[in-house]
Amino acid sequence: xxxxxxxxxxxVKDNAxxxxxxxxxxxxxxxxxxxxxxxxxxNRLFKNGIGVDGSSVSGFAHIKSGDxxxxxxxxTAFIDPFWDRPTLSxxxxxxxxxxxxxxxxRDPRWIAEKAEKYLRKSKIATESIWGPExxxxxxxxxxxxxxxxxxxxxxxxxxxxxxxxDSSEANLGYQVPYKGxxxxxxxxxxxxxxxxxxxxxxxxxxxxxxxxHHEVGGAGQQEIEVMFGSLKDMADxxxxxxxxxxxxxxxxxxxATFMPKPLYDEPGNGMHVHQYxxxxxxxxxxxxxxxIGLSQIGKWYIGGILxxxxxxxxxxxxxxxxxxxxxxxxxxxxxxxxxxxxxxACIRIPGYQLDKSTYRMEFxxxxxxxxxxxAYAAMLMAxxxxxxxxxxxxxxxxxxxxxxxxEELAKIPQLPSSLQRACESLAEDHEYLLEGDVxxxxxxxxxxxxxxxxxxxxxxxxxxxxxxLFYDC
Length: 473
What we know:
This protein is α+β, with helices and mostly antiparallel strands. The chain contains 13 helices and 19 strands. Strands 8, 11, 12, 13, 14, 15, 16, 17, 18 and 19 form a ten-stranded mixed sheet that branches. Strands 1, 2, 3, 4, 5, 6 and 7 form a seven-stranded mixed sheet that branches. It has a two-stranded antiparallel sheet with strand order 9-10. Strand 5 (78-79) and strand 6 (87-98) form a beta hairpin. It is globular, with a radius of gyration of 23 Å. The termini are far apart.
């Protein structure tokens, strides 16, 4: 039974903790939280939880059945680095109460846990290992609005080339050229110290970082890549990464966004997801006898991802803005194929893998608008379906897709070009997600309802560029 462990007692004592904060994730992927005084930190808190109104969280519950309980997970304890008063933070599970506590089928953490149980029950592997790459922009000013008579956004970055003509004393030059930010060094890289601090804070929260660097986008694009972890743990870490990045940026009077395409004609923010299945701590995707080092199980796993890629995108690239990044002609993947080292393939097998114990594939369409618990679980279920049904992914495609003829491209399936098409694909293809009751018909239905409401919200509003195209019609 969950309880106040010795680790928790030590954290409280060493940090003179005054408050306990419990964070939980809604269906759409945003964290919510509730705070109680330290006196509430007893075994009773882990047994009986904290009452919350599920009807106030999009996609959770109706008003008539809104009463729910938030149970802190003692394994997720960390000292919140952004609170002035010492605060112990937990990630919680949302459960139903009908006389007794029962699992809530729409709780994303429960869905992720069920996916891990389904994997273990299959005996294919003991665990799945995940490693997302987090891309984001750091801006110095952001404003936006949408009204009946006006709609706009305005973004500024001290690193951006458009600031090179700024005549104020604050401008010391060293702007980064458009699309010229990849691994630039200071003084052009003006944000490296912020990334260093993010890295230190993430470590203190239990999230080890592999590396960080400036990304291609000249107007302040960054990347942080964390060490690999199991599915639910990595989903927890993904939420902590976004929390730490945003709050550290805010501390420096900057605004961090993981939005897939915040700028026209600059690279978008992806969240490429490395993944593999493991037994005894080693990848079962590696075969030294294979030409590209990929085992038969690994190929079938890729076959499942490719077969279900269109429906997967509804979970992995789950915003209307996602599809402004997923366009032909760039590194962003738009075709359902796999390759070794080819970055405009939907699935890439990294060519630099020297440690075969972590031999993996990378699914490149995802971005951070996803709910990581649902996205990782959905990818795992697609891959397992591929293994179960021995789905052949065919031969890898190592050609440059942007240089192919229309006839050649016609042989490679095209991924959805909009959230609406991704929703339509999920509506038609989701049986593989229902295996083992990991996802339910109810979760699929409410997810599609929420996503289509976003599609409709964008569809009914005029776009500023439409005035240039059509005003003088």
